Fold this sequence. Notes:
alpha+beta, 2 domains, 4-stranded antiparallel β-sheet, 4 helices, 4 strands, 13% strand
Amino acid sequence: MSHPLPDDVTPAGRSRAATWVVRVVVGLAALVTVALVVAVVGYVVLVNRWADAYDVSPEAPPAVTGSTDPTPEPENQGLDSSNEAYRERRGTPASDAEAALSVPAVEAALAPLVTGDPLRHDEVVAALTGAGFETFGVTPGTTPSGDPATSFGVGVSVPGGCVYGGVTPEGVTLEAGGPIADGGCLEMPTH
């Protein structure tokens, strides 16, 4: 003769509470697995779309730069380069090309200052203001050691982006491109 099972035991010999706990744990594990798969697939799709958005097609015009005195820029090295992301320029080939159209006007404003004599901050500001530029930046009139600066970095906001570079007693060096990641045209002095 068979004995009836108590109300809290299943035919498999487990308590109803244990069966319920197993079902909840299995359900949560399945839910976490599905969420993890969705997160990984979403991340891959997002990264691919982001990468595609910044790819330059072979038909895109080359970057346009203008210069009267080319000076190579030093490369960032080691861990220091990871802290320089705010200096990266943002732009597109089309906007960079539009900004490059303003290089001659900025160069024409600064070229009269190139006399071989040390420059002054107020001369650079006056030259850019006199040429009709309203939004621009010029590096400080003193060096980090407190001495008067004799050459200056400049960044001028123009249609399409920025014209940026420097003016020294010996020449003007300018390039065109988008603003830097923090939104300005002129990089802040190194820290």
